[in-house]
Design goal:
The protein is about 65% helix and about 5% strand. The protein is mainly alpha-helical. Helix 4 links the parallel strand 1 and strand 2.
């Protein structure tokens, strides 16, 4: 009983010391800049102008805060904006990383001329990374399409089998059913990265093919007309056949584009890029509110109980948050049945959004623990810039520095959503692994920071208690 009483007395002293430390901190916080000088000058509330001599010491503190905050903000702007600007600034110089395959199944005049035109292209500006692939490696159109879908290449140009002979036969027989676009086929997958495809891959390939086929068709037509008018005699039959099939002369040679994975849901741009910024900000808001709520109870809780509460509440909050994000996307006609059933697509997307929300949210919780509510917005801004810089455009169009994005939450959640929505090549296991790794990392750092903060508080309380003795 005596031991218990002594223990209770010691505990009471420790709690009293904690309260004294808290009260002292509040007093220090509320004390105006200049401390005792205010009382000496007998300053009264609402009685001075800003440049009054009585406020000189307070004015110095005011300008110190402003100058420091502006300095930090400008430094942050130089760093963060430079990172984001650099993510986009060099894209037109790196288009050679957008690989394109040329597959010649014709092995005749058209096939040879098209490849020669690609090799001899001297048009200034961005160029795709062209290479010729042996048609025996990809013997069928299905093989070519699968290579594009599996993201082995950004674009594949196929000169179809016997393309030269088909054009020649159509002219000689007057085949009115001949389709010039059947000679060449271009395969691509827009949903892989719509900006890279829409800005570089398709415009560059279309311009190049337009020049090549126009020149080739003109040269071929001239050669054919020269044969018709051989030795000053007009071949009336040949002219009649051309009249039956004028498309064999103009355009003569053209191509068909096959978009294997169309980006046919504009709202997906919001879900895969900008929406993740919103989601991150929402987690910051809830994390800030949770930190304020914890301040009411944390001094009464054992560390184990505090830590369980610190984890359980955010993990529960992120369930309705991620569900809302998914449901709003679905309400605006985001297709989720390209790879899975509608129900399966909704559930899997919800799971990945939950993992992404948790990865970002626990990072905010962790930083709030050690940085506090005043500095955590700086971390939030840096976190968003670091993530969004790698997600806005294809990695092939960015400097090697931005390769870190493959290990960051935004990039992996964006890639997972593309797979669910557009049935692009699946990296879902890797995406989930990266998001879970971020969750684990944030959990570890939050535990460590929470222990450190609790240690500082208890150490201060013990020190105060010993001083009182």
């Amino acid at each position: 009983m005596a031991a218990d009483s002594a223990k209770d007395v010691e505990l009471a002293h420790w709690e009293l010391a904690q309260r004294n430390v808290f009260v002292k901190e509040v007093q220090i916080t509320e004390e105006p800049v200049g401390g005792d000088d205010t009382d000496k000058n007998n300053l009264q509330p609402f009685s001075s102008s800003f440049f009054s001599s009585d406020l000189a010491h307070i004015r110095r503190g005011y300008f110190s805060i402003i100058f420091h905050s502006v300095g930090i903000t400008l430094l942050l702007m130089w760093i963060c904006l430079s990172v984001y600007w650099a993510a986009l600034a060099y894209s037109d110089r790196l288009t050679h990383n957008l690989t394109a395959w040329f597959i010649d199944r014709d092995n005749n005049t058209i096939g040879h001329a098209v490849w020669a035109g690609i090799n001899n292209d001297t048009t200034p500006g961005p160029q795709l990374g062209w290479s010729q692939v042996d048609p025996t490696i990809l013997p069928s159109d299905d093989d070519v399409m699968q290579a594009v879908i599996n993201e082995h290449v950004w674009l594949a140009l196929v000169v179809e089998t016997n393309a030269t002979d088909k054009l020649s036969d159509a002219r000689q027989t007057g085949n009115s059913a001949f389709n010039p676009t059947s000679l060449l086929t271009v395969y691509y997958a827009e949903a892989r990265q719509e900006i890279a495809i829409g800005t570089y891959v398709i415009p560059k390939s279309n311009n190049l093919l337009g020049e090549i086929t126009s020149y080739l068709a003109t040269a071929s037509a001239q050669q054919y007309f020269a044969q018709i008018y051989a030795q000053g005699q007009v071949n009336e039959t040949a002219l009649q056949l051309i009249a039956q099939a004028p498309q064999t002369i103009s355009p003569g040679i053209s191509w068909t584009t096959v978009n294997l994975r169309p980006f046919n849901a504009p709202v997906a741009s919001a879900v895969t890029v900008v929406g993740q910024i919103f989601l991150c900000i929402f987690t910051f808001i809830t994390a800030t509110a949770h930190t304020s709520a914890l301040a009411l109870v944390q001094k009464y809780l054992r560390f184990s109980s505090y830590l369980r509460l610190r984890f359980a509440v955010p993990l529960l909050i992120y369930i309705p948050m991620s569900l809302t994000y998914t449901a709003v996307s679905l309400a605006f006609k985001l297709p989720i049945n390209a790879k899975f059933s509608p129900a399966g697509g909704f559930f899997i997307m919800w799971i990945y959004v939950y993992l992404g929300t948790t990865a970002s949210g626990l990072a905010m919780e962790s930083m709030l623990t050690v940085l506090g509510p005043n500095l955590t917005p700086v971390f939030l801004f840096c976190f968003i810039i670091a993530n969004i810089s790698t997600s806005i455009i294809a990695r092939e169009l960015q400097p090697a520095f931005f390769g870190y994005g493959i290990a960051f939450p935004f990039w992996n959640l964006s890639q997972a959503i593309r797979t669910i929505v557009f049935n692009t090549h699946s990296y879902l296991p890797r995406n989930a692994g990266v998001l879970v790794a971020w969750i684990v990392l944030s959990a570890l750092t939050m535990s460590l920071f929470s222990w450190y903060c609790r240690y500082k508080v208890t150490a201060a309380a013990r020190s105060k208690m010993h001083e009182r003795r």
